[in-house]
Amino acid sequence: MDSNERINNLAKIIENSKKIVFFGGAGVSTESGIPDFRSANGIYNQKTKNLLSPEEIVSHTYFINHTEEFYNFYRENLIFKDAKPNNCHIGLKKLEDMGKLKAIITQNIDGLHQKAGSENVFELHGSVYRNFCTGCNKSYGIETIIENEGIPRCECGGIIKPDVVLYEEPLNRTIMNISIDHISHCDTLIIGGTSLVVNPASSLIQYFNGKNLILINKSETPYDYMANLVINQPIGEVFSQILDL
Ligand code: CNA
Fold first, then answer.
1. Using H for helix, E for strand and C for coil, what is the string for the chain?
2. Is residue 32 in contact with ligand 1, taking CB distance under 6 Å?
3. What is the pLDDT of residues 104-160, one digit of tens each?
4. Of all atoms in ligand 1, which is nearest to the CA of residue 29?
5. Which among 79, 145, 155, 171 has the fewest CB atoms less than 10 Å away?
């Protein structure tokens, strides 16, 4: 089957589905100019100026022990305030408006689904747009992080931390439970732009009981064998073709 046939098949599946859930990762936002972690030109393969891997830098231990270096890396590599939604984000918003898409479950922290207007978005790994004081819990927006150099501090003197789930930190239980509920009740699960190697997010697939499991990813994933349809094309392009159809 060539890629056009696969996209035609996906359009038919969407047409016949009533409860779609989308589960996505960093690949959803690469066409908006935000690098992912594991692609050839992703952050893991590009920026290792410091002898540590980005995975070590974006960890709880590193945040606690090297907060300033953490923030230098974080500001440069994980905040893209001016990025705009691409055709994948826009397509998903349209499917939500049509009443077909029931939820977006994302590992992304970039807020682009909300910028596209989607409402039912569950952020498994948090968001760069929310930050809080580790001392008094006061909330801060993204500007506080961008506009301050070094370690951002609260007016109480406490260190401000992004509301982003770092490696070694647990996921929010409520968001995980809502995600499990949506995935176990949908008829079609579209998974896109994720290498599916980060747990427990990737283990969510096991809760799918529906009819159509679709995987849209540029590269292979460990779960391709489970899918009814695999599309190895840029996801923004796939969504723009689907909407044309
Ligand atoms: P990942 O491990 O970097 O995998 C991304 C996957 O997407 C790879 O398999 C790529 O082949 C694929 N891909 C890249 N571009 C496209 C595209 N245009 N169309 C289709 N597929 C594409 O990222 P995961 O999300 O799987 O890993 C989870 C981490 C990455 C989460 O903790 C995120 O918070 C974190 N992250 C998020 C962002 C963001 O918010 N935009 C950016 C970088 C990393």
1. CCHHHHHHHHHHHHHHCCCEEEEECHHHHHHHCCCCCCCCCCHHHHCCCCCCCHHHHCEHHHHHHCHHHHHHHHHHHCCCCCCCCCHHHHHHHHHHHCCCEEEEEECCCCCHHHHCCCCCEEECCEEEEEEEECCCCCEECHHHHHHCCCCCECCCCCEEEEEECCECCCCCHHHHHHHHHHHHHCCEEEEECCCCCCCCHHHHHHHCCCCEEEEECCCCCCCHHHCCEEECCCHHHHHHHHHHC
2. no
3. 999 999 999 999 999 999 999 999 999 999 999 999 999 999 999 999 999 999 999
4. 41
5. 155
